[in-house]
Amino acid sequence: MQQKILEVQNYFIGKIVNLEFKIKETNDFQCEIIIDERYKFMIWIGNGFTSLGMGSLSSSHFMDLEKTFSQEEKRKIWGFIRPTIKTAKERALLAKREQYEKLKKELGEA
User: Fold this and answer.
1) What is the pTM of this model?
2) 3-state SS of the chain?
């Protein structure tokens, strides 16, 4: 059984290293990814690519993947994820700006 589990873990690690996943959601600390349209995993991104690694299991994720990525793998994965982090932050800032403009209009300041 342990061998089968290792095979499955290696399958998913290979998908991550080869960037064969979709990004579901990012925040300042974690990136939730989906592999094969079904399996959810968490990548820790809180300190940039130098500490990039697999997050621990939560109830909504498929399984823990114990993997220490090489520096090259980290750079590759980080390069794929990084643009979405910026986009998520930009979207949050845009929402706050829109809310600010709405409040200004409501207060008659615009």
Assistant:
1) 0.73
2) CHHHHHHHHHHHHHHHHCCCCEEEEECCCEEEEEECCCEEEEEECCCCHHHCEECCCCCCCCCCCCCCCCHHHHHHHHHHHHHHHHHHHHHHHHHHHHHHHHHHHHCCCC
Read off the amino acid at residue 67.
Answer: K
What percent of the chain clears pLDDT 90, i.e. is strictly above it?
Answer: 50
CB 86 within 8 A of CB 80: no
d(CA 52, CA 50): 6
Rounded to whole angstroms, the Cα distance separating 107 from 55 reads: 44
The 10s digit of each residue's pLDDT in 76-92 is 999 999 888 877 778 78
Cα atoms in the 13 Å half-sphere on the side-chain side of 46: 6
Say yes or no to pLDDT of 98 above 90.
yes
